[in-house]
Amino acid sequence: MQDNTALNALIQALRRLPGVGQRSASRMAFYLLQHDPQGAMIIAQALQNAVSSVRHCVLCNTFTESKICMTCADPLRDQTRLCVVETPSDQTAVERTASYKGLYFVLMGTLSPLQGRGPNDIGVHPLLERASNGQVQEVILATNFTAEGEATAHFLSEALKRRGLSVSRLARGVPVGSELEYVDLGTIAHALFDRRST
Amino acid sequence: MQDNTALNALIQALRRLPGVGQRSASRMAFYLLQHDPQGAMIIAQALQNAVSSVRHCVLCNTFTESKICMTCADPLRDQTRLCVVETPSDQTAVERTASYKGLYFVLMGTLSPLQGRGPNDIGVHPLLERASNGQVQEVILATNFTAEGEATAHFLSEALKRRGLSVSRLARGVPVGSELEYVDLGTIAHALFDRRST
């Protein structure tokens, strides 16, 4: 198949997608060309549209097609609370709980010294500026409970407290619906430590 | 994120890729927009190029950008043997063994009554025509050893024999480098049945 420069270029291009290796990329390329060429054109168009029109909300850093995203522009949201998440997906997860009515800040990543990602690579400075606007009273750190997410939360907590802000972190504990027998020991230890009187 | 029509359109478009669900599609879209917008444009361009320039070889049905693919156009290949495979990936696998110098025919699928794929949905008729050109003496069936691949091989074998062609199938047996203890029983049974005198 040495004459298939366009096909090979497509396979190499698809390998840029996260989690897609040589085999998956070949499978995707063959599938699209054989069974869904129209879909291939739709994907191409959607990629071009998204790259040209999606940008970051100047207030919360999430993806939006306007200057300010709909959440930030909503006057009914509680302007005194700011929930800090790693990604737009995390924001969607919190939003789906319907138990938070404040605003968000999306870091678009975590700090990771091992991978060379420092405060300038994620939205740390815009967050500090955003949180110091005089309206925000509490910052809720909702980064993931992974090593990197925890380190990021710790770093942000210190920086935000230095600015006189009240900072909280999502509660660690036993997941709803789970049986203690199957919960990992670290989680049970945290749940014991953070126990609340009833 | 109701204002993100371009982003949502991209996520929906990426779900058309085989093996990609809502979560993977979101992850791909966020990754491309955040970390590799240039890659997104490269993928879009590659998709458009491939769809517009890749077609099927008129002789062997594989993907090519010419009328006849390089393998079929190669005068040094043995014109009397035709190896039938399901996909271009399978053709590449056989080709990499460097132990076959004949020509190929790529079905681009298998028969599958359950999924409604009959002889007209894969390249059965072009194959029969191709194999009856007077030059081909032996057809080697190299479809996969799955239920669908076996059924396809059986169907093709009958049809090709009716046309007076010599038909063979890849040998079933114990994989090279494997230990009997860990080989499934069906494979050992086939290897016993197809045993060869040394």
Task: Give your account of this protein's structure.
2 copies of one chain form a homodimer. By secondary structure, chain A is α/β, with parallel strands linked by helices. The first copy, chain A, is built from 8 helices and 6 strands; from the N terminus they run αααββαβαβαβαβα. A 4-stranded parallel beta sheet of chain A has the order 4-3-5-6. A two-stranded antiparallel sheet of chain A has the order 1-2. In chain A, strand 3 (78-85), helix 5 (88-96) and strand 4 form a beta-alpha-beta unit. In chain A, helix 1 (5-14) crosses helix 2. The longest helix of chain A is centred in the first third of the chain and has 17 residues, at 37-53. Chain A is globular and about 70 Å long. The model of chain A has no long low-confidence stretch (mean pLDDT 90).
Question: What's the quaternary structure here?
Answer: homodimer
- In percent, how helical is the residue content of chain A? 40-55%
Biggest interface, residues from each chain: A-B, 59 and 59 residues
Strand order of the largest sheet of chain A: 4-3-5-6
Overall structural class of chain A, as computed from helix and strand content, comes to: alpha/beta
Could you tell me the mean pLDDT of chain A?
A: 90
H-E string of chain A = HHHEEHEHEHEHEH
What's the total number of strands of chain A? 6
**Low-pLDDT runs of chain A:** none
Rg calc of chain A: 21 Å
Count of alpha and pi helical runs of chain A: 8
